[in-house]
Amino acid sequence: MTKKDAALVPIRATLGATMIYHGLPKLRGDGPEQTGQMFEQMGIKPGRTMAKAAGLAEVFGGITALLGIGTRLGALAVIATQLTAVSKVHGPKGFDNTSGGYEFNMTLIAIAVAMLLAGPGALSVHEVVERRIQRRPWLLARSRPRKALRAVKLFK
Prior knowledge:
7 helices; elongated; mainly alpha
């Protein structure tokens, strides 16, 4: 394990917890309806469906970050939702977060880009799965273990 691997843990934990916290209200109770109405007013249609999709993408991105598996897919989901938030809500308000600006969203995007480039690191569920497959490649694919292992590495 390297310092980089250790450094990725609090980054993943912070992004993961933030995105789950941000996405769950869009999925619970009146969240889909309320967020859907707001989305409709911004021109994002169908609002309720898109609110659920945004909530699922945010929660998915958060879970992948926390666990450290599928982090690159999760990072893409975070980037997509936050770029949409900047373009539709926060962009016109400027950079300052206290004025409703995009400062916070850009921070989330930067963290997600770092995860997209770096992957989850050694302290992750992905690493545990990959080590098990390397020891016993037949667990994933009997006929083509090397090809299956390459696919697992891409899924980081």
